[in-house]
């Protein structure tokens, strides 16, 4: 441990500087290996990646685009069955399934011939649309740690792609509802594909949860022409408009004039079993429909499962789900029903530091026919409208919401909200035109290690305010640490928290999305959540220009940190033909490629300390 102003620092790595260039950066004494890149083959029979020869069929057998959330799901060496919970209990940190989201595609950086990011979304060819659909969704890849570090296991029977066309079940209270029925699916119970897969979570029974966030951009059509006025409002709320990209020209269900209910089948959380490659994913309508960042769980034996999530849009809400049934560690088949039956709540943050969970239950309070809710399916399909009517607190873009197992408190990443007006401030969202974001701490009732996450109320406080602690404008000034910002170096501050992870010691690792506007790369910052250096960050990793870091995920032993570098070289006028840079290959024949890195210490000890 090192001393910092007389305070014990358990994060002993050598902090890196804030920079802005075409490389990635990490502390001395560490390795950062490129583990998986867009286009890497997941099965034998595929050649090395040659982007100009890519076909939709081949993309379905390769790692997808714009990697985001990462879940490391251990594989127990001695167990071959598909029972996830058995594998998870092994805590094997040398072999596992890396489950990786692919949030969205960028045709102007994937294909030759598109001029710039603004025109590229128009007029993409049928083949390119099909490749994009195959490059979205999720990858499940077996990986193994050998003498030379982590390697993907090509052709593992577990390797699988889930794409924008994979068949999935619709489960929970909205399944089969009239508003989910389409020509292709008159039952309203089966949907093709998942898109906008941002962050997610994992369960102790061995499944993975992935979010559907910005799905609206994949749909084209004019909401004003929809006969049902309520659906028109609903579609507008998710950014569906005539000038959106043109998937609908070739896959007609993405045109709301052809299939007005299809958008109602997106905007959910998806659960799947990565240990069974034949299993059918399902959309959990019990967790509501909005621009899901992700949902993360708190599971205690013989208690209800609690899941926390955010709706990543300006003025949207923080949510919590409490299962009706109890978590039974030894009964995985019973646990499969935990997330389909229960109650969803939206958060109200009172200015005095108290908070309340407001239940979204049809028939209660304003959630009645008089306000256009026919049943619980309506409450779930129109979650945003329901939560607003209940009086939930509009937040500054809630991204990851995750609980630190060490202190049993829950942390809310609020990335930014330029639309926050000075006439609309509250203690939970205290800054007008919030450009730097902040992090809230939710403290459920009870003592450390035994807090009641299913309680109707909680307490909360600000954990940190993003931004430069020395900013001239006091409204933009960051606030870190218990007394002052002097506990951090000049590189220790950041802005725009997005994803978060906790290492096995309980340190918080924050991934950012937006720091380039402050003059330096996005990256990772690590800090304690307890003790004298609480909320005093140190800078650990920096991205190549244009990119953000997503999905920080530790191996169970804390010795590997997996991160996803999303949208490298995403900048004005940067295209496939003339990219800003060609990270990570720096090969003139290859474009920039979103990639997953495995970071570890050269001496093999735990990352961070
Ligand atoms: Fe896809 Fe909320 O970041
Ligand atoms: Ca993103
Ligand atoms: Ca995100
Ligand atoms: Ca983001």
From TrEMBL:
Membrane spanning stretches: none
Listed Basic and acidic residues bias regions: 579-590
Annotated region (Disordered), positions in chain: 573-595
InterPro entries assigned: PhoX
Coiled coil region boundaries: none
Entries under SUPFAM superfamilies matching the protein: Calcium-dependent phosphotriesterase (SSF63829)
Name used for this protein in its record: PhoX family phosphatase
Organism: Microbulbifer okhotskensis
């Amino acid at each position: 441990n090192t001393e910092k102003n007389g305070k014990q620092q358990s994060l002993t790595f050598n902090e890196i500087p804030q920079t802005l260039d075409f490389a990635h950066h990490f502390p001395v004494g560490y390795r950062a290996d490129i583990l998986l890149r867009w286009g890497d083959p997941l099965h034998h029979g595929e050649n090395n990646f040659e982007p100009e020869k890519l076909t939709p069929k081949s993309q379905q057998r390769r790692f997808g685009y714009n990697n985001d959330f990462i879940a490391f799901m251990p594989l127990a060496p001695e167990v071959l069955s598909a029972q996830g919970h058995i594998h998870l209990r092994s805590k094997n940190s040398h072999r596992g399934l890396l489950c990786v989201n692919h949030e969205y595609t960028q045709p102007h950086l994937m294909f030759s011939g598109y001029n710039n990011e603004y025109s590229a979304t128009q007029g993409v060819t049928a083949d390119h649309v099909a490749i994009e659909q195959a490059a979205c969704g999720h990858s499940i890849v077996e990986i193994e740690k050998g003498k030379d570090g982590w390697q993907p296991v090509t052709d593992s029977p577990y390797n699988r792609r889930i794409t924008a066309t994979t068949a999935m079940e619709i489960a929970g209270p909205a399944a089969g509802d009239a508003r989910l029925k389409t020509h292709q699916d008159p039952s309203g119970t089966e949907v093709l594909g998942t898109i906008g897969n941002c962050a997610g979570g994992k369960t102790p029974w061995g499944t993975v949860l992935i979010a559907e966030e910005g799905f609206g951009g994949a749909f084209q059509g004019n909401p004003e022409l929809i006969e049902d006025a309520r659906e028109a409002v609903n579609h507008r709320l998710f950014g569906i408009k005539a000038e959106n990209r043109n998937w609908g020209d070739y896959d007609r269900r993405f045109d709301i004039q052809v299939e007005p209910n299809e958008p109602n089948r997106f905007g959910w959380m998806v659960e799947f079993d990565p240990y069974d490659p034949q299993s059918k994913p399902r959309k959990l309508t019990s967790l509501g429909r909005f621009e899901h960042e992700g949902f993360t769980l708190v599971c205690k034996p013989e208690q209800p499962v609690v899941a926390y999530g955010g709706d990543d849009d300006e003025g949207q809400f923080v949510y919590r789900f409490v299962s009706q049934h109890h978590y039974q560690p030894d009964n995985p088949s019973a646990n499969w029903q935990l997330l389909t039956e229960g109650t969803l709540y939206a958060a109200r943050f009172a200015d005095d530091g108290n908070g309340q969970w407001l239940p979204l239950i049809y028939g209660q309070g304003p959630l009645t026919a008089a306000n256009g809710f026919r049943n619980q399916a309506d409450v779930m399909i129109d979650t945003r409208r329901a939560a607003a009517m209940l009086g939930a607190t509009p937040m500054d873009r809630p991204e990851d919401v995750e609980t630190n197992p060490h202190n049993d408190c829950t942390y809310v990443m609020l990335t930014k909200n330029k639309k926050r007006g000075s006439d609309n401030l509250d203690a939970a969202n205290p800054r007008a035109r919030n450009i730097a974001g902040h992090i809230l701490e939710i403290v459920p009732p009870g003592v450390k290690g035994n807090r009641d996450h299913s309680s109707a109320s909680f307490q909360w406080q600000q954990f940190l305010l993003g931004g430069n602690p020395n900013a001239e404008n006091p409204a933009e000034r960051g606030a870190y640490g218990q007394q002052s910002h002097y506990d951090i170096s000049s590189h220790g501050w950041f802005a725009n928290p997005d994803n978060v992870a906790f290492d096995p010691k309980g340190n918080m690792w924050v991934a950012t999305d937006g720091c380039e506007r402050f003059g330096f790369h996005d990256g990772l910052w690590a800090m304690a959540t307890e003790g004298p250096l609480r909320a005093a960050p140190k800078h650990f990793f920096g991205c190549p220009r244009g990119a953000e870091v997503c999905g920080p995920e530790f191996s169970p032993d804390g010795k590997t940190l997996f991160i996803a570098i999303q949208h490298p070289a995403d900048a004005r006028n940067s295209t496939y033909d003339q990219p800003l840079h060609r990270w990570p290959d720096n090969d003139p024949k290859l474009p920039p490629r979103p990639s997953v890195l495995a970071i570890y210490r050269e001496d093999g000890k735990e990352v961070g300390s």
